[in-house]
Amino acid sequence: MNESVFKKIKALPPLDDTVIQIQRLHADENSSISDLTKVVEKDPMLTANILRSANSPLYGFSQEITTIARAISLFGMATIRGFALSSTIKKSFSINLEPYGITTQDFLNISIIQNALMYNWHSKVNPKSLEILSPASFMLEIGKIVLAHELAENKQDIEFREKLKNISSPIDLALFETEILDMSNEEVTAKIFEQWNLETELSSSILYSNNPEEAPDHIKDYAKALRVIKTAVNIFNQLDDISIQNTLPLLDEYGFGHDTFLMAVAKVKDNL
């Protein structure tokens, strides 16, 4: 492991109170939407972000959502937890993705598109799996923030960005990151989740998202779904013809039907 990267992860601030409370509610089988609403309402920034997303055509709700209680009821606790974790990223990290050739807004947009695609897809395939897949899809790329900082600090950022022009897939990018920094985005993201004491299903599903066949059995399906999502939406391509064509062999290999996935793609793509 890259010790410098590891130190940066260890130095991250803890999760804020809102996320901790949401985590506790998520773990409590007796918690309710009302309990979650009370927690979220105390965080104006998170409330605004959830309402803005609920009214975004990316998620496809048919009516205007005017209350946070209604938004939480529609999204469910798992996706709300994803929004809360995403909000923590904005608070905890100084985001500069220049070594990856994308802006901060590009990075945030990719995260939202990945989650919207996962939500629209798996809400029709296996809604219960969104307990893991919704927050995980929000957080697929956060390790890049730490790696980009490391590259800039070591004055490797320009060289990295130049060589990145010869790479076109998330799998090849992970290999390139490991070659240069001894760690991939997926490994860093998993370590961040461990640092924040998030459940192992979350960290492991991302850790194995490049090689689902190597995942423990209870993680395999999560890792497969995440690999499909990041093949369709990544820093190189976002739901263009190339990335969608690249997902089709994975859908076949993993036993996912084409129609449901492509319907989700169409809904998200039409509203970008």
Radius of gyration: 18 Å
According to DSSP, the number of beta strands is 0
Q: What's the end-to-end separation, in Å?
A: 38 Å
List SSEs in N-to-C order: HHHHHHHHHHHHHHHH
What does the main sheet amount to? none
Alpha-beta content class? mainly alpha
The share of residues in extended strands comes to under 5%
Low-pLDDT residue intervals, each spanning 5 or more residues = none
Task: Estimate percent helicity.
Answer: 55-70%
What value does the average pLDDT take? 93
Shape: globular
Query: What is the tally of helical segments?
Result: 16
Account of the 3D structure:
The protein is mainly alpha-helical and 272 residues long. Helices cover 68% and strands 0% of the residues. The chain is built from 16 helices and no strands. α1 (3-10) runs parallel beside α12 (185-195), α8 (130-138) crosses α13 (200-207) and α13 (200-207) packs across α14.
Annotation keywords:
272 residues; mainly alpha; 68% helix; globular
Layout of helices and strands:
Elements (H helix, E strand, L loop, with lengths): L2 H8 L6 H11 L5 H9 L2 H11 L13 H8 L1 H16 L11 H22 L4 H9 L4 H11 L3 H8 L5 H12 L3 H11 L4 H8 L9 H16 L8 H14 L3 H12 L3
Helix pairs in contact: 1-12, 2-3, 2-6, 3-5, 4-5, 4-6, 6-8, 7-8, 7-16, 8-13, 8-14, 9-12, 12-13, 13-14, 14-15
What is the gist of this entry?
The protein has 272 residues and is mostly helical. It is 68% helix and 0% strand. The relative contact order is 0.12.
